[in-house]
Amino acid sequence: VTSKRGMVATFSLMMMLTIFGGVVSAHHSRAGYDNKKTVTLKGVVKEVAWRNPHVYVIFGVKDDKGTVVQWTGELSSVSTMLAAGMSKDTLKAGDEIVVVGAPAEAGTPQSLIAKLTRADGTLVVADSYRSDTR
Amino acid sequence: VSHNVKRFIFLSSICLASVIALSLIVFAQGGRRQDENRPPALPSIQPPPGWKSCPRCQNNEDRRKARVENKVEGHAFDPHNLSGVWGYDGVGGDRGPTFRTPPPLTEWGKQRQLETVGAKNARGEPMHSKDTSGLGGGAPVNCDPMGYPRLYTYNYGFEFLQLPDRTLQFFELNHTWRTIWTDGRKLPENPPEPHWLGWNIGHWDGDTFVVESTGFDERSWIDGVEPDGGWPHSDQMRVVERYRRVNYGTLEVQLTVTDPKTYTQPWVTKLSTIPLVSGTELWENFCVPSDYNTFTNDVYLPATGEKK
Q: Cα separation of B161 and B273, whole Å?
């Protein structure tokens, strides 16, 4: 039974890697981020910079020692975000969010946001830099 | 266990092969086209009641719905009426394909092209630092006018306003306009100042609106060049645009750029079609220097490692 489970897990992982690998290769790369890697962050919104060229969210994330580190999560242009279902009023300071995105190549606390949800799992941004939001 | 392992390998191989085959099909069709058939994950933000979306504020589902609701297909039209918002994502459906392959450059043209290529970061990636138009993340204050025809190729939506003596071409990107005089005047031989968007006159040739331009500021580019830089032009560039509304929902356009100082032959683009973006109106996509600078300094440069 254990071996079967192991196989299923391995198989699922293989599928995920294949599918995800395909998705990543379809992306246009955005300067400064390593979209071969994914970072998941739980934090609290401090500010939303709702302007062009790209909207970004400034949020605090507690590190291992409990110190709050200020992160910047880059989204897309204002018009693209509206098309993707996010408005200037969607997020407010104090909102708890979960960000999944590509980390900055420089190792700075920055991420190109792929998916943004509220702490309760409500979807806020499905994928800001994929063309399906267009 | 051995049987199970064999079965597992067999099933995995089939599934993996299918996924790879599917990925290849998706890749061959182009990501954009494939994405257009998929419903968006979340509905878009709708405009206030009585107002319309900006051309890029619609998602594909909004665009499809608007075309049906406004009966774009088969709609009656006057070929001499060019009203409506045209395009939202570059000319030809993807920003940049209009001026991909240039005619041979002159020696002067080659030199000018080299001068458009910007600096590279530590990893050897282009910083686009010579692109001061707002598109180059590595440029310090980058909201210089895009110039013409680059503004046309990077189309975020434009519309024509036809007046008795002139046609105004309004652009969503950079929130700017171009005046095309239709009162019979001729192009000036030696314009007193160069214009980023040219000195422009227009006339009808049958059902084709022909725009002729000269007197360009030579600091702008005809279009960008992958991966960095741009196709240059001189102040001697002349541009001829031919717009034809072939049906209510489609504008056909061809451009000819003649600039013997830069190119040994005229650059004639392929015939492009620009869709009517039903259910939209132009909003205010300014390039705001302070916003761009803040973004460059607080987001772009730290992420690339150019600024700690």
A: 20
**Residue at token pair 């450059």:** B105
DSSP string, B73-98: TT----TT---SEE-SS-TTSSSSGG
> pLDDT by residue (tens digit) across A9-65?
444 444 444 334 333 332 334 778 998 999 999 999 999 999 999 999 999 999 999
Q: Residue B267 burial by CB count (10 A; 0-12/13-18/19+): exposed, middle or buried?
A: buried
Q: Cβ(B235)–Cβ(B212) under 8 Å?
A: no
> Which contacts qualify for B226-229: CB closer than 8 Å, 24 or more apart?
B226/B96, B227/B126, B228/B116, B228/B117, B228/B118, B228/B126, B228/B127, B228/B128, B228/B130, B228/B131, B229/B113, B229/B114, B229/B116, B229/B117, B229/B118, B229/B130, B229/B131
User: Could you give the CA distance from residue B199 to residue B211 in angstroms, rounded to a whole number?
Assistant: 10
Per-residue CA distances from B70 to B40, B73, B247 (Å)? 21, 9, 14
Alpha-carbon gap: B111 to the closest alpha carbon of chain A (Å) = 27
Cα–Cα nearest to B128, from B14, B216, B212, B226? B226
> Which residues in chain A are closer than 8 Å to B62, comparing Cβ atoms?
83
Give me the phi and psi of B211, to 5 degrees please.
-115, 130
Alpha-carbon gap, residue B69 to B40, rounded angstroms: 19
Confidence (pLDDT) at B122 = 80
Interface of B with A in 104-133 (CB under 8 A): 123, 125
A71: chain B residues, CB-CB within 8 Å: none
Note the ipTM here. 0.85
> Closest-CA residue in chain B for A53?
B292
Q: In this complex, is the C-beta atom of A104 within 8 Å of any C-beta atom belonging to chain B?
A: yes
Q: Is B3 on the interface with A (CB under 8 A)?
A: no
Select from A90, A128, A130, A131 the residue whose CB has the most chain B CBs within 10 Å, as the one to mutate to test that interface: A131
Count how many pairs of residues, chain A against chain B, have C-beta atoms within 8 Å: 144
DSSP string, B204-261: EETTEEEEEEE-B-TTS-SEE-SSS-EE---TT-EEEEEEEEEETTEEEEEEEEE-TT
* Residue B148 to residue B51: CA distance in whole angstroms: 30
Read off the pLDDT band of B121 (50, 70, 90): confident
Q: What does the CA dihedral A72, A76, A79, A82 come to, rounded to 10 degrees?
A: -70
Any B CB within 8 A of A38 CB: no
